[in-house]
Amino acid sequence: MKVLVVGATGFIGSRLVRAFIAAGHEVTGAARHADGLPEGCASHVPLDYTALPAPDDLRRALSGHDLVINAVGILRERGRQTFAALHDEGPRALFAACVAAGVRRVFQISALGAGPGAVARYHRSKHAADRFVMEQPLDWLVIQPSLVYGPGGGSAGLFNLLASLPLTPLPAGGHQRVQPLHVDDLVAAMLELARAPAPLRTVLPVAGPEPLSMREFLAALRTSMGRPRTLAFTVPGIVMRGAARLGDFLPGAALDSETWGMLERGNVASPAAFTRWLGRPPRPVARFVAPPARDLQWAAASLDWLLPMLRISVAFMWLIAAIVSMGPYPVEDSVRLLRDIGLSPGLAPVMLMGAIGLDLVFGILTLLPRRGRWLWPAQIAVVAGYTIIISWRLPELWLEPFGPVAKNVPILALLLLLWQLEKRR
Fold it and tell me: Crossing angle of helices 90-101/55-62, nearest 10°?
């Protein structure tokens, strides 16, 4: 078949492209940019739902394809990337162009919970496109997956992080019902559906083998990463609602009022029809992570919360040094220490003020979400410089029982770790 995948660089779309290519089909990747398209795409169609081409241009791009798959979806709106544009208006234009181009079959990847009574705008916008494609004179399939898990998925990263914590936080007690499925199972079933000789024209709920509470899901996910269960604690509902409202104002936040509302509502369905197309039961959460990848995935999940914690601790070190040097620790004693390392009486107070300012700058910059790559090597150079000067002029401080200079050794190692990991992630 000639297959066109819209959203070909996304989490689900890129996997569909690779799977159809591996199965011997000719695949066109439709996305805003060609960068990130999986290797082997026959061609690229530049398509941006926020700036749609003319209908005739879109029709020509779709002409000759046997199957068109819409795999575009967002959980959070950002700028022009709104639910209305990406979930409703763009897909409507795509489906109308499919009819005009004579495309035989269209797959619309929607979401479990999309329907006329949906509360979340995410679900309502998906349902609007679902309803439109159902009215078109073509062979359509609306696929409504539950929570989709897989490497590189945004929700997978969040749940991996929660499962890797020493104490598992349970939002509002962890009673929410979910039915996660692995992205590879979704892709495998869609390959089979694409081969179906008879018209489909149906809505297919896609979910894991059984409903789980959030508590059970996180415990099973931890097991899949090869770690034993750990203690859990409840995050009160009022705290979760407050965090969700705060997330409404933070563009990169994984939790906002809509996502919290969807989680509270639950996300479950019968897996019977999905199982028939897949040809086997979908894999349980305990088998989401293959044994060879367990340690690597555990390390990646742990770093997602360890690195922010390490950055905050480094920022605290610089900020507390600046604050203490401003007065809680006698200024005259700080000046005397600088004079002991060889600074003149006139230069020592100036250097103290400069050191305070540098500590403040380092502390504030370390807390910023976007940091220049120079920040970590600059901090390494300053700490190393302090250590060398003190070792030369005041070597007796190495013998202090609380180790004020010896602590610089692990601090240097920590800064080097942050520098190396941040450059690669």
Answer: 60
